[in-house]
């Protein structure tokens, strides 16, 4: 289940909105030009399943999104718990950047947090299994997979060379709370 927190971009202690209500999250992100959807999650996909098996499990929604948004390809990225280079991989995405194409991700398993910087605000959207997020081209953002990444996501591309980032040089990401997934029972 997704959770949205909206901050002032000048002060990360000022929380303007915090919600896990899907309708409110989707509506608030839509106002910022961001597509957010919940897709049904079928049975759990085994960790040993290859990328094609993951894509096949979501073939209907994947094909519909590709058709509607003009994506030319999709692939699967996995960051299993205990990945040996996790700290370096996390750090690679923590700097604010943009893309010349929409960045769309569907979380099959696990979670991560996207931070969107637009209109004087930072929108932190924690995505989990079943969440599909499409960030418009040229929107400033960064991604935090947490200190012990554990997720599988389908990525969508319009460019043949896939994910290409242009870093802004702004250190804004350093000022905002990092993503720390909640594990174990919630009380």
From TrEMBL:
Q: Where is this site: May play a role in metal incorporation in vivo?
A: 96
What does the record give as the function of this protein? Catalyzes 2 different reactions between oxygene and the acireductone 1,2-dihydroxy-3-keto-5-methylthiopentene (DHK-MTPene) depending upon the metal bound in the active site. Fe-containing acireductone dioxygenase (Fe-ARD) produces formate and 2-keto-4-methylthiobutyrate (KMTB), the alpha-ketoacid precursor of methionine in the methionine recycle pathway. Ni-containing acireductone dioxygenase (Ni-ARD) produces methylthiopropionate, carbon monoxide and formate, and does not lie on the methionine recycle pathway.
Give residues annotated as binding Fe(2+): 97, 99, 103, 141
Name the gene behind this protein: mtnD
Which of UniProt's keywords are assigned here?
Amino-acid biosynthesis, Dioxygenase, Iron, Metal-binding, Methionine biosynthesis, Nickel, Oxidoreductase
Which CDD domains does the UniProt entry name for this protein?
cupin_ARD
Highest taxon listed in the record's lineage: Bacteria
Metabolic or biological pathway, per its Swiss-Prot or TrEMBL entry: Amino-acid biosynthesis; L-methionine biosynthesis via salvage pathway; L-methionine from S-methyl-5-thio-alpha-D-ribose 1-phosphate: step 5/6
Q: How does it assemble?
A: Monomer.
Q: What is its EC number?
A: 1.13.11.54, 1.13.11.53
Q: Name one GO molecular function term.
A: dioxygenase activity
Annotated site location: Important to generate the dianion: 105
Q: Tell me one Pfam family matched here.
A: ARD
What is this protein called in UniProt?
Acireductone dioxygenase
Cofactor(s), by name: Fe(2+); Ni(2+)
Site (May play a role in transmitting local conformational changes) found at 102
Keyword check for Oxidoreductase: yes
Identify its protein family. Answer: Belongs to the acireductone dioxygenase (ARD) family.
Segments traversing the membrane: none
């Amino acid at each position: 289940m997704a959770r949205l927190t909206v901050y002032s971009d000048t002060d990360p202690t000022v929380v303007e909105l915090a919600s896990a209500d899907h309708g409110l999250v989707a509506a608030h992100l839509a106002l910022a030009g961001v597509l957010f959807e919940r897709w049904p999650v079928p049975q759990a996909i085994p960790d040993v399943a290859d990328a094609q098996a993951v894509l096949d499990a979501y073939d209907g929604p994947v094909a519909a999104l590709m058709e509607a948004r003009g994506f030319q390809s999709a692939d699967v990225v996995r960051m299993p718990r205990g990945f040996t280079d996790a700290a370096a991989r996390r750090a690679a995405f923590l700097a604010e950047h943009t893309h010349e194409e929409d960045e769309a991700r569907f979380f099959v398993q696990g979670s991560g947090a996207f931070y969107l910087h637009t209109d004087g605000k930072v929108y932190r959207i924690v995505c989990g299994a079943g969440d599909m997020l499409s960030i418009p081209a040229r929107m400033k953002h960064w991604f935090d997979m947490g200190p012990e990444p554990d997720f599988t996501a389908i990525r969508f591309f319009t460019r043949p060379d896939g994910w290409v980032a242009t870093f802004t040089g702004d250190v804004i990401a350093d000022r905002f709370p990092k993503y720390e997934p909640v594990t174990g029972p919630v009380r």
